[in-house]
Design goal:
Blueprint (H helix, E strand, L loop, with lengths): L7 E5 L6 H12 L2 E3 L2 E3 L4 H8 L7 E2 L3 E3 L5 H8 L17 E4 L15 H6 L3 E7 L4 H18 L3 E8 L4 H11 L3 E5 L7 H11 L4
Parallel strand pairs: 1-6, 1-7, 2-4, 2-6, 3-5, 7-8, 8-9
């Protein structure tokens, strides 16, 4: 590993929680490189993040596995006739900070044994959990953090904090932060359109907290 800092691994309480938007914001805030090791389906999240990042420094690295079907990676890989092997997934060479985006939620399976969160452990990353707020999200977030803490205690990654996405619900945020003891790094509102300007705005807000 040639990074001067540990990778930042973006995971979530579920699919479509906002990992790609958060990845773009953090990539912009740090002028970091971006990498999605496992991509299931199109369009590629790498292309989306690249379209939202303004700085001239960030580089966008090729996926280790680019799968055709928008399914859980283990199922999409089976359709493509491949097996995702963690031993074949290595950090791309870069001297820059690196933002790594997971696929789906943290316990989405990559194969019959490994989960997405196992990549964070493999890379000894700093994990940021994205939690979108909806009815039931308190339960899903607390379960996710409990599992993150259990794995972190026995592994190599650390938990950096939570980013709340979509319409902020103060009562939900407060009870989640109270029970997890984790810091809230950023709150993202609901927006009709996601633009470079919006990403840059949130990046400026987040920069000092990373």
């Amino acid at each position: 590993m040639t990074q001067s800092h540990r990778p930042i691994f973006i995971t979530a309480i579920g699919t479509d929680s906002g990992k790609t938007l958060v990845s773009a914001i953090i990539t912009e805030a740090l002028q970091a490189d971006y990498w999605k090791p496992v991509q299931s389906g199109l369009p590629r999240d790498t292309e989306t993040v690249q379209s939202l990042v303004s700085n001239p420094v960030s580089q966008f690295h090729k996926e280790a596995y680019l799968l055709r079907e928008p399914l859980s990676p283990h199922a999409s890989a089976a359709i493509d006739g491949v097996r995702i092997d963690l031993d074949q997934i290595s950090l791309p060479p870069t001297a820059n900070r690196l933002v790594v985006e997971g696929a789906g939620g943290m316990l989405v399976p990559l194969n019959e044994r490994d989960f997405v969160i196992d990549l964070a452990d493999r890379f000894a990353a700093e994990v940021i959990l994205v939690a979108n707020l909806y009815l039931g999200s308190i339960n899903h977030t607390l379960l996710s953090v409990a599992e993150l803490k259990r794995r972190a205690a026995a592994g190599w990654f650390t938990i950096k904090g939570i980013i709340f996405n979509h319409c902020p619900v103060e009562s939900s945020e407060q009870i989640i932060l109270h029970h997890t003891g984790l810091p809230c790094l950023l709150r993202i509102g609901k927006h009709e359109a996601v633009t470079k300007e919006l990403v840059k705005m949130y990046a400026e807000e987040l920069r000092g907290r990373l």
